[in-house]
Structure formats: structure tokens, C-alpha cells
Amino acid sequence: MVKSATAKKTAAAPVMEIGRETKSELYRLQLELRYCEKRAYDLFLQNLIKGTSHLSLGQEAIAAAFGVAMRPDDWTFCTYRGHAHTLARGASMEGVLGELMGRQCGLLGGKGGSMHLTDVAKGAMGSYAIIGAHLPVAAGAAWSAQYRGTEQVAVCFFGDGTTNIGAFHEALNFAAVWKLPVIFVCENNLYMEYTPISTVTAVEHPAADRASAYGLPRIVVDGNDADAVYQVASEALVKARAGGGPSLIEAMTYRHSGHSRADPGKYRPEGELDRWLLKDPLVMYRARLLKEGFNEPTLKDMESVAMGKVDAATETAKGSPLPSIDDIEKNVFADGGAAWRN
User: Fold this and answer.
1) Alpha carbon distance 274, 128 (integer Å)
2) Please, are residues 123 and 72 in contact by the beta-carbon 8 Å criterion?
3) Which of 168, 257, 178 is nearest to 211 (CA)?
4) Integer Cα distance of 311 and 263 in angstroms
5) Residue 1 clears pLDDT 60, i.e. is over it
6) Which end of the chain is more exposed for a tag (fewer CB within 10 A), N or C?
7) What is the pLDDT at residue 14?
8) Running DSSP on this structure, what letter comes out for residue 4?
9) Short-list 258, 313, 288, 312, CA closest to 81
């Protein structure tokens, strides 16, 4: 269900017709994102992934919907919880898993790790570990597209906690004043790290309820419904390309695991996780496809293919060597090395 207006409660927007091919792509992508992140968790338990990482298990519908709706030359800016968003733009699984494992086949040669995934060739313009830092960067990219007349759109994903950061308000104001082709997507999973966002924010919806301050419509969408997210994503992209300016979308979702690998999530109220597991985006979407005429063998084949792709990427990443010490200063400085310091 989509709600889009400055009013608190509104009627649902008309549901766009989504073709079978698009629905198939949405399911395929959700499967790959889920299986790949679950594999990342398994590799961590095998001590093949060092340090921490932040999984988005349960939030796949958002990344998948935007990944399908966006043009190849659009840009994605995401947070440290950015594995799914990077994969959704077409970055290779072996590149993502290799980066998490610190291997040469990684997107950044094994030097960036989980929180800095980047694949410029695919429009994945980086994951940002500093809360809110990427919103002004996304606005700048959008300004560039506007200046050059390319009709490219910058899509910036962030968590609910970012809405209480100054950069959120500065980027929204700048984008609204200049009518920039940028879409700000708040993935509201109810928690800003370990703290419920509702306990530290004066409004119910930390992003959407502030949209009117910048002359933007209030948009709240079920972030676990890939079709609903695809609809609002498509509308926002059309608006941005036509010169209609930015959009602020709040997608309601829930992460199945804790904030990071070090977080067991015991601060969550009893029964809350169980209730959200009933709204698992993959389970709901699979049931919808069956109801709409997709047959069981077709879906099982898609699931088998997705798992096979993850297995192959895993073996490639495992077989890739660790970075050489000679690579430590490569792709760090503008000239490709550290010679300028001497």
C-alpha cells in the first residue's frame, strides 16, 4: 500500500500494472540478495570474513525494486548496510563476497571491506560509514546530472537514524531549492542501531512527516512489498527525469538480525521479530506470484539458479589470493601512489 500526500492519512494511490517479466526480475533479485547475504553470514562463522558487517536480511524488497526500476546510468549511494544495494545495481557476487573476505577479486581489491563497497561502472557510487555523509554527495551528483542535462538520477538510501542528522536536512533543502533529480529513500527498520527511532523523534514517520518542511509530498510505502516499492520508485524516477525535483520516500521494513554481527538484538520486545517474519518480503512475494499464475516448478528453478550463482561466487572468492603488500598504496592517492609525498 502506498500513501502519498501531505495529509496524515490518505487513500492508496492507484496501483500500476507490473508485467510478469518485471515481477520475475523482482523475485530473482530478491532471491539473490537474500542468498548472498545469508552466505556472507555463513562465511563469517567460518572465520573467512573478518571484522564486522551489517546485513539487510528482511529488507531486500527495497534494494531489488529500485535496482529493477533504475536506469543503468543512474547512481546509487548507500550506507554501511549496502551489500544488497550494490548487488542490485549489477555488481558481481564474487566481487562483493571477495571484498568481504579481503581477497584480490573483491570490488576494491580486498582493501575496502564491507562498509565501503563501490562499483562505479555499475553506478554504485559507494557505501558510507559516516551517518548522513552521503546525502549531500548524492545531491551534488544530481546537480551534475542537472547541469549536464543527462536525465540521470541519484538515489540515496539511508536509515531512520539519519533523519536526525543535520546533513539530512541540509541535503533535502538544497535539493528542493534547486529541484535536483535525486531520490532520498529512508529505510525505516524501526531502530537507529540499538535505539528505537520512535523514542527519540517527535514525529511518527521521521522522514515522511518532515517532507512538507521542504515542500515535498509525504510518501510512506510498505518496504517489504517489492511491487509497492517498485511503483513509488518508478514514479519518483519519472518525476526526477522530467525536472520535477527530488522525492523523499520512507519505506517501512525490519531487519531480521541485529545491527551488526556483534549485536544479538536482545533489546527488541518479545514477539516483535516473529511478527515481522510473517511479513518476510520473499515469502510474501512468492505467495503472490503463485496466486498470479506462476507455477511452483518455475519458482523452484529460479531459487535453484540463484543458489547456484551464490555457490559459484563463493568458490571464486575463496580461491582468490589475499592482496599483495605491493597494492597497499594503489588506488589511495590521486596519482595512484604515494610518490607525491616525497
Assistant:
1) 30
2) yes
3) 168
4) 27
5) no
6) C
7) 52
8) E
9) 258
Q: How many CB atoms lie within 10 A of CB 111?
A: 17
Task: Give the separation between CA 331 and CA 316, rounded to whole angstroms.
Answer: 23
Q: Which three cell numbers stand for residue 277?
A: 517474519
For residues 151 and 141, give the distance between their C-alpha atoms in angstroms, rounded to a whole number.
Answer: 12
pTM of the model: 0.92
C-alpha cell at 105: 577479486
Tally of CB atoms within 10 A around 308: 11
| Residue 174, C-beta contacts closer than 8 angstroms, at least 6 positions apart | 136, 139, 180
| Ordered strands of the 154-159 beta sheet | 2-4, 219-222, 247-252, 182-188, 154-159, 75-79, 124-128
Distance CA 142, CA 151 (A): 9
pLDDT of residue 336: 61
Mean pLDDT over all residues of the chain? 92
Which residues, in sequence order, are CB contacts of 325 under 8 Å at separation 6+? none
Decide if 33 contacts 60 (C-beta within 8 A). yes
Query: Among the residues of the chain, which ranges form H helices?
Result: 20-45, 60-69, 83-88, 93-100, 134-148, 166-178, 226-241, 272-277, 281-291, 296-319
**Coil, helix or strand for 57?**
coil
197-204: long-range contacts, CB 8 A cutoff, minimum separation 24: 197/160, 197/161, 197/163, 200/164, 201/160, 201/163, 201/164
Go through the domains of the chain in sequence order and give each one's CATH number: 18-313 (3.40.50.970)
Cell of 236: 519518483
